[in-house]
Amino acid sequence: MSLIKLENISKYYxxxxxxxxxxxxxxxxxxxxxxxxxxxxxxxxKSTLLNVISGLDSYEDGELYIQDEETSHFLVKDxxxxxxxxxxxxxxxxxxxxxxxVYENVLLALEVQNYPRKERKKRALxxxxxxxxxxxxxHKASKLSGGQKQRAVIARALAKDTPIIVADEPxxxxxSESSKQVISLLQELSKDKLIIIVTHDYDQVKEIAxxxxxxxxxxxxxxxxxxQNTHEDVKIEPSIKPMTVxxxxxxxxxxxxxxPRLLLFFIALQxxxxxxxxxxxxxxxxxxxxxxxNLNLDMGPDIQIFDFHTSNMSDxxxxxxxxxxxxxxxxxxxxxxxxxxxxxxxxxxxxxIDEIETNYMYYTHPQGYTDYIPRTYKYDTTYFIxxxxxxxxxxxxxxxxxxEVVVSNALRVNxxxxxxSREDVVTSEEVTPIQLDTYIYKFPFEDxxxxxxxxxxxxxxxxxxxxxxxxxxxxxxxxxLDPVRKDYVTNVSVLVEFYEYNEINYTVxxxxxxxxxxxxxxxxxxxxxxxGNQTLSLSASSEITAExxxxxxxxxxxxxxxxxxxxxAIQALFAxxxxxxxxxxxxxxxxxxxxLYFILYSVMKNVMSSRKKxxxxxxxxxxNESKLGLLVIFEQVYMMVISFIVSMIVINILSYSNYSMNxxxxxxxxxxxxxxFLTFTYLSIWLARRFNKKxxxxxxxxxxxxxxxxxx
Length: 712
Fold this sequence. Notes:
CATH class of the largest domain: Alpha Beta
Shape: rod-shaped
Number of helices: 19
């Protein structure tokens, strides 16, 4: 029984110009104990014969037998299994992993065959010593000379301990001394193995070769036995175990670390993509989670249902009243204080900043002119900003008096500036006019010298029954008003409205960088003296915390007045539409993620192309498709995990110094982190699978050829 038997084997190569013959009608047998030298001119088919025998390349016609087993039905995984168990390789171009050390190259072959883990290091060092490279064991392969590289490759072939070693021009790039060392090593191996060597220099091996095969134009023209093979023909059962998942994981990590610059490049690229995607995801999903439909029923200005106003209430504040109208109790305060991780404060009553009906606030600009503060500005408490002291640009935000305020950086004022708050007040009073004659009355302006009169309404009563209102000013002439009923008037009075305003001056003692949010922050300590026992005012540490607090409050017991996120029963009607729109947002965000990863894939494709040689070598030494595919997946996942962690660290660092980034971070729920992590994991695996699909679509020898062409 022959170890290898070729029966009328032919191999053809397709090219743009047609089909060329690699070899044709080759019939040969090989056995353990032989040292076979294959010679011939360039293009004669020597390397093709070697590639077919070793399973690196396919054949079109004939049959190849491995210990009498036909191989024409072999699939990719069958050839991988054959290479892993039966064949070790020594190439003219070395095909060594340049980024690995000598030790790592040899260790790789031991890992591929799942050599006992505790014995791998010892075995690798023994083989390195055997080829005389102990002093270079920790040197990168790229730093070795040609002879040293070839000896390292032989050590790797020995590590596989396979019955067949094929050597394609192993001395082609070496000097004479290095060539002798390599041939000597191969001779030593031939005692219990089949060695097939392709060479242009037959003189180097004629003393040790047991057989000489000469080829020309793809055919065997000479097959001469030089020495009798005394080795017994026995069936070989290689005991190589498949590579474990744990070994693949360690191998992937070592493979990444062996290329630090490439690793850093990929991590930097992925960090940039993850940062952009995370910020986009946070903003888009925050929009999706907001009320998609708000019924803004315009009830007219200053419609007041409660004893407070909401027009200037900030996004992180809300007021709470009991639905049953009962007085707020200590149990209510305790319940509301315990919600949402207690990251909020409960004021017992209505804050004075919510009691002002019509409030005009203005300030003196640094350039000297007076300007109104926009009515869109919100009123807040220093409790909100006390949780983020790093954003205080100037001044202070603690120990504020009732007349001190911290302002948003959106308001271009300096420390010490005065903000004037004017509250308009309209009062009314019924007075008796001065009667000048029978039918003429005068309003007594002299009685109100310091009053701003806003409006005068004359009240005229006829026959003690009917009273009409007449909007006039200082004089009333009953005869001119109603000459028919002038004598039936029984009483005349005046309802006068007075216009007044109260002004409070606030001194700016701090400027807070809230990314131009537009807010005035009043003293938390002064607001502790809130008024009323029917209402509680809640101030959260952030808008995001406020949203979560709003959702956590029991709506069956409490009425929550939260202008920033007011929900009502009407929204339930739109639930199906809300779902569809949320689905649209998710689709949009994942489409954006795919776009970003397409950019990454475009870059990665070029970089991964430079690694074709490495992956071809992995395949040649017996790494099967599933394990090599898993290797690429592990690499991508490792880079993604590192990039994700780095990105989250960067976001946290930026959030400490940038208010907008701080809001982005606050919007992310634990669920969002899981979604982001799973998204990037999936996309990393997707990238790996695309690369694997391309890699395993062609044979090992085609991979090696492509890598050499790309290098050139």
